[in-house]
Amino acid sequence: MQTQSHTLDRVFQALADPTRRKIVERLSHGPVSVSALAEPLDMSLPAVMQHLQVLETSGLVRSAKTGRVRTCRVEAAALETVERWLALRRSSWERRLDRLGEFLEQPIPRRKS
After folding, report:
1. Which of 43, 73, 95, 105 lies 20 to 30 angstroms, CA to CA, from 29?
2. What pLDDT was estimated at residue 89?
3. In sequence order, which residues have a C-beta less than 8 Å from that of residue 108 and are 6 or more positions away?
4. Are 55 and 42 in contact (CB under 8 A)?
5. pTM, entire model
6. CA-to-CA distance for 112 and 31, rounded, in angstroms?
7. How many other CB atoms are there within 10 angstroms of residue 63's CB atom?
8. pLDDT reported for residue 3
9. What CATH number labels 2-102?
10. pLDDT tier at 108 (50, 70, 90 boundaries)?
């Protein structure tokens, strides 16, 4: 459980940054070269590389170099870990909301004056 918790911590920390979320969103459409990822971002290539390093360390992104081109892709397993964690929380929240709904539907007992 500790390993999963550590993994979730790294993934959520990586996704806390809006630039890294943009990168993951872009990579969710398919593999992209680092230069293509950097193009729409308003930052230097070294800054983009730093963001990619954080994403790779978290396990969200993998990259491979072919010749002079480094291509990145989303690592689905890391996203599935987060999805499972969120699904467990969601089911707990839904059960609690269902119980609250049932409670609120009960008639209010009248007090005798």
Report:
1. 43
2. 85
3. none
4. no
5. 0.75
6. 70
7. 16
8. 65
9. 1.10.10.10
10. confident
For the four alpha carbons of 87, 19, 75 and 52, in that order, the dihedral sign comes to negative
The tokens 């699904």 sit on which residue? 87
Burial (Cβ within 10 Å: 0-12, 13-18, ≥19) of residue 3: exposed
Is the per-residue pLDDT at 88 higher than 70? Answer: yes
pLDDT of amino acid 113:
66
Show the tokens assigned to 78.
Answer: 């890391």
Domain boundaries, the chain: 2-102
Residue 68 DSSP class: T
Q: What is the pLDDT of residues 1-53, one digit of tens each?
A: 446 678 889 999 999 999 999 999 999 999 999 999 999 999 999 999 999 99
What string of DSSP letters covers 13-47?
A: HHHTSHHHHHHHHHHTTS-EEHHHHHTTSSS-HHH
Asked whether 63 and 34 are in contact (CB, 8 A), the reply is yes
